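Anyone else keep sequences and structure tokens together like this?

Example one:
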Amino acid sequence: MHSKPQLLVWITCDGVHIDPASGKHTILGVFSNIKARQFPVVHPFMVWFLTLTDVQPGTHRIRMSIGLDPTSLAELFQREFESQSPLHRINLINELRNCRFERPGDYSILIEVDDEPILATSLTVSQ
């Protein structure tokens, strides 16, 4: 029986810079909520940075969904990524462009790897 992937880090930020020489990641502009003057609002750009471990070797699919109603979330995006070993830490930089928020509230976020939920959290969007 394989263990399911473990989420070590989840950060919402403005950007991630990768140093070409060292490969180190620099996280820029960390935030945990969004303020808007009027609704609907479109947030032009943000990054969801994740670090996973315990991911079995091979190709996997990550999916991220969001919505005001936790029972009916809309898929933001999905993509494939590779794992070499369950011992590796895999950093995933997920760029989200033009996210639209219809009204203020606590938006539920679900992150899944191979259809297994690994994180259920929320993002507050306020006026």
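And example two:
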Amino acid sequence: MVVARKIAYNVLVSTVTKVLSTILALVSIGFITRYLGKEGFGNYATVLAFLSFFTAIADLGLYFIATREISRDGAHEAHILGNIFAIRLVSSAVVFLASPLVVYFFDYPAEVKRGIIIAAASFMFSSSYQILNGVFQKNLAMDKVAVSELLGKIVQVIFVIGAIQLKLGFDWIMLALLANMMVNFGVIYLFLKKYIIIKLQFDFVYWKSFLKESLPMGIAAVIAFIYFKMDTILLSVMKSSADVGIYNVAYKVLENITFFPAMIAGLVMPIMAKNIFSNRERFLEVTNKTLKVFFLLIVPLIVGVSFLADDIIRLIGGSGFFESGRVLQILVFALALIFFGQLLNTILIVGNLQKKLMWILGGVAIFNIGANLFFIPSYSYMASSYISVATELLVVLLTGYVVMVEIKYIPQTEGFLKIMGAGLLMASFLYSFRALNFFVLALGSSAIYFIFLWLFKAVKTEELTSLIRKN
């Protein structure tokens, strides 16, 4: 009972702090869009795309494979993490030192080039911080990770508001990101001491064997960057900064929601890794419950955004980004598919099938780049929006096929029709009362959805408690 209460507390704290972090992130975007305008925000989004590029290049698959390895019985955590942390520091330093060379080859304004170098510095902290998260995943203590992220977001928002009030310009908006990452790393490192003391280790024999396992995931990370962020870079090269800004206001709204599937997958990954080969029944139970939770979240997201996209954009970006409403309505379907893709990717990783995942993502990335290169010149950000949906659909279909064939996992659909029913009633409310105030519609439709979930008995309490049980 004590363990169950502790887990419930961790899940509650993680959810609340993650929601607050998301709100702060959207508040920050709201200030930045109004201060920088379409073109300035387009430059900001371009810099963040390069931050994602740096993250992908130096990823090396370390995070997922390290989490998998320390979650297995008898794992030597100190040895594993000491070596992985050392690898991460080396790769981060290489990226930072190479960043000035990278920006030299792009015809960007000087402020964008400076911003990319600041982003490279931010990456050194964010990448180190990410590696340490595996310890908290194993110990089902992701609440501490969420708290560190919240504190970082608070610092960033304060920094952004101060920079805007003092009219310090684009560089200081980027320095707010660096401050965020520094706080994240500092806080999480302090929390880490409760579980393990990490000392840098340079066991090159271990490095070689670990990288042999992790590099397929590292390649997958580069490929994932290609189909997540290459569209922004291609837009910045082939179209105007304003086009990049319009696309990325909508993209940022959804990007800040992707913490839900990442957080839930992070909580269940150690349990799945422990049981996939030793306790098939428990593995299937956790996987099916996770799938149902994702479906519970996806339905109201699609319904809500479909009806309220214009109001959401007006609230976040201001009146200057009205074109982003249609983009948001399209991209919400990509977000829904990301939920399922996150679960399927996690299954492949814990099932030691990361090489197959790499090939799948590679094929999808080729499709994404080819489609964007062909359609962006004529259709700009609208092309990128539809291509994002098609890309995520391909990921789900291909990874789903491999999971069914190799893992022999067939998704269970208990309660899904009841969830769809609640979603249809939510949509009916939004359509019938669409003239009402945005906040009334948002709160009222959410209440309708959850009330009918309860009335239909779509979710049982024991389903959620079994999902977060310790093993």
